């Protein structure tokens, strides 16, 4: 069931992206004919249907979880770094809340990755289609200073936690402790810091693809240009170290180990800090 929920979250993200589809002005390259730059004629697709499908998907899958979850003894959960939410599958209201929060977390992770790519590749021109897509979906956020891009998710998650905390307490999903607003905000900040650890999957994937592409020719696809540019930016601080032996570059391997180690050793102290704030 967890795999099904993951797949449905991906479907929801695709519906969201189709609803948020932004016409991208693709600069013509040298030697490109005028005919190849023309767009096909026809009325634009009604994107509102994608949003309607997404809004329908969330309650429909909640109904499915409610009908199927209890017979198979499935207890859905949403891990948030230092703590985990568990939901009773025999209550439709809880399944509806789980469906909404599960997609919200997936959407948040997606935009967190976009902000990271925007910060890393700030110097890449709009000629790169992947980076142009990142900037299109971020909109005005892409023009924010790099430091603000990095701390924005932290403040957003802390604010969302403060807003959700009373609801979750009333549903007995959180202990009824009389915490001050600032203590609850501190809890949200810890959860926000833990959210950055999810970026390890994106960073490791980029570095691994860069490592493979360094020794195996995989074509001239724009994806590989974007991966190479992103990995080179990530590896720039390590270039001063003697990490090359002949034609072998150990910098990507060291970077992968550093990312995984940082994520592994950062979670326990954040979990302990959240426990003390609880």
Please, could you describe this protein's structure?
The chain is mainly α. It has one domain. It is 64% helix and 4% strand. The protein has nine helices and four strands, in the order H-H-E-E-H-H-H-H-H-H-E-E-H. The strands form two sheets. A two-stranded antiparallel ribbon has the order 1-2. A two-stranded antiparallel sheet has the order 3-4. About 5% of the residues have low confidence.
Strand order, sheet with most strands: 1-2
Q: Report how far the terminal alpha carbons are from each other.
A: 30 Å
Give the SSE string: HHEEHHHHHHEEH
Q: What is the total domain count?
A: 1
**Portion of residues within helices:** 55-70%
Helical stretch tally: 9
Main sheet characteristics: 2 strands, antiparallel
The secondary structure category is mainly alpha
What radius of gyration results from the CA coordinates?
Answer: 22 Å
On the 0-100 scale, what is the average pLDDT?
83
General form: globular
Low-confidence stretches: 24-38
- What is the strand content? under 5%
- Could you give the count of β-strands? 4
Write a compact overview of the structure shown.
With 278 residues, the chain is mainly α. The chain has 9 helices and 4 strands; from the N terminus they run ααββααααααββα.
